[in-house]
Records
---
Amino acid sequence: MFPNSSLKDSIMNRVFVRGLSYSKVFCERYQPRFMNTYSDTIKPPQEKPTSIVRPIGLSKPVLLNHKLSDTYSFSNIKQELFGDQAKERRQKQLDYDLKHSPIYEAKSFQNTKGKIFTPPISYFKQDKSLYFPDFIAKTLTGGSRSLYEALDDKISIITLSSAVTGEQCVRSYFKVDGKDYYSTDYETFKEEYPKVQIIDINMPQSWIKGFIMNMGKGGLKKSLGDESRFKNYFILPSHIMSAEIKEKLHCDNQCSGYIYIVDNMGKLRWATSGMATPEDLTLMWKVVKGLQKEVSK
């Protein structure tokens, strides 16, 4: 059948290679999802910051959570437990948790010195900007409030942190010319920036840390000083901000701290992360002054 043995060998080799190629494509296409997730978990930690050059955030205003009374109907509970969208959301959260182990995040934080991303060189125009998400959470007053309710008619410097290292990062952006706008010189801050406010989002990494933080509310209030700030200090359970939202806001490393400057429409105009450098400070307060002029028109 094969008068020439070399021809036979050539044909057999082609069949073998083609079979291997088909098997590889089949495996890549139909392998279980957890295999893809596992391959992501063995990727090395982040080595350098990413650069923000385009607007970040959500394409439209989104309320992340509702009052508990909104979820009591059987149909809503059934959909949350067994609905396709809920299952997909839980799978994405599992994928995220596997990728973002404490060791991975700590090493990434160390490698980048907390600079998960570097800020844009200027603030984004309002018509190009995307939205920061809305949510309902408890504040230091003891009551619940919507973030968008707190925006009022001002420019908001929103701090977001989940750990002590993150808190140290965000507070470094308020130390300007020997003054500390965040605490001791907050009155000076209000005089110099009457159309700007500070909003804090404390997002504990676990319910245990959230419980401990709630026990220490007195210390938090003392560090803020001005009672008017209590209603703008949110304690947001980490699970309310999904993995997808965190990735869109680039705040998916809980060791670092983040600053978002948001206008009165909820649009995210500028952002930064990590400890403030001299250049960061100059840029951020230039952005704040520019946006204050915009909102004052």
Note: The chain has two domains: 5-31, 52-68+113-296.
---
Amino acid sequence: MGILDDAQASAFEAHLAGCARCSAHLDEFAGMEPMLAMLAEAPTAVPGARPVPRVPEPPAPKVLGGLMDEVAHRRHRRTKRSRYLVAAAAALIIGGPVAAVAVTGGDEGGGRPAATGEPHPTSPAEDSFFEHLPEKVSGTDPTTRVGATIGMEKKAWGTHTVLELKNVKGPQKCVLVAVSKTGEEEVVTSWSVPKWGYGIEGSSHASAKAPLYVHGGAAMSREDIARFEVRTFDGERLVEIGA
């Protein structure tokens, strides 16, 4: 953000290397990159004028305070949502599978309830996060024609992933599995594919044209992962991605 000078940045990095609490706080700011990019966007260029390099400037205190408030709001909302999930799980355990409980982001957009129809397409923030991941591997299955790219970054707890999935049709439920070099398997994340699918070129359905982006995490370290597999809940392998 341009707030720290070279000496301060070095001191910050040295502290971060040994402080798990600050590392966790830094992870919370990771999703703010798209907002920061918008704030740093260069002004419209004048035709015929020579481009002027943009020098990063520290954000004004008002802007910085707003960013801090946004992170605090997200943390509060995440805690509240977790309580709803625990309550829903307890109800299902006690009462059995009597009713389906849907938990959404809640009151976003002026207190209006979240829509229950077709899901919204992937947000620009998710796309941006995927683009900034340091390592990506891709694969396309010759039979199913499903294509996948997985972005990865090392974490103290394992490996953070974002999956980009294309040319997958529904309705079906899928799972991303990480396979270690010794054959150990670990579920990274799972999702549902609507009947119109994701990342399908030429589709008449607007939501089907965009790829699916889904976040996940594996306890395996990056060095231990040999490959990823996208499978259906029925066990069919849709695509394998070498890591």
Note: The helical segments are 6-16, 20-29, 33-39, 61-95, 124-131.
---
Amino acid sequence: MSRPTKEDLAAAHGRAIPDVIAPRLRVLFCGINPGLWSAATGHHFARPGNRFWPALHRSGFTPRQLRPDEQAELLTYGLGITNLVARGTARADELTPAELVLGGQALRDKIAANRPAWLAVVGVTAYRVAFADRTAALGEQPGKLGTTRVWVLPNPSGLNAHFTVGTLAAEFARLREAATPPRAS
């Protein structure tokens, strides 16, 4: 994957990237919106320093650390990625609350159409706004979207200094354990 130029990043502002989605996934991860690096490359969580891919691997969701340009391989593990808001921005705080609310409705429609077992939203503040739940905290949420259970994870952006790769991986592992069906004996 080549490094985008300053011009590439500037041109990526407002650009959407395709979802990595299929019906009946085990977990559909939902980012807030594509950063400019992701919008420029067309790959989710693509900016160097984003901890999504290392946390996903260290938590046991994938047998090795995937690169952003290998995102389609997630489907082989029953995983996928989408975003609350489609448009790329330099920072998530460029999004308006109205955009997040509209994104929450669009996400409900994706969930209804694809029926993943779990939705994992990365970013508690964005989740609170998009789903009008001021009290949401990390972890499993009390409500469902249809039959889909909902989990909120910390934002893996390098701007979220409250979490290291290790603590992110621990949060992701809690979800993996919840999303893994018990083995038949």
Note: Strands lie at 27-31, 79-83, 118-122, 139-145, 148-153.
---
Amino acid sequence: MHKWIMSGVFFAACALAIVLMFTLPGKEEVAQEAKPTMPEVTMDAGQAETLVKANCISCHGDQLQGGVGPALANIGSKDDVEKIYSTIVKGKGGMPSFKGRLQDEEIAHIAMWLAEKK
């Protein structure tokens, strides 16, 4: 009787392993989810400044000098536009994600505008 139970458990574990192999995402899919893709837009500096004033200055300061959040006045010399975009979308440390708060195109405008701050 014990052999039958162990055989059944082994069979169930093998079946579950096979199902998981075909349903779990692969490394490539997980990497794509981890790195958001920035939409192609032509930067609108006016819109970017308006968005920054409405969403960023409370933590990063009105001159991007820093405050609760880090200074962004020279962020373009440290990070490229893709990294800035990813940080805004996903959040980082104490910074919340702006995915869902802002449209992807708005985040792209902000990232492109900040990337020029060198």
Note: The mean pLDDT is 88.
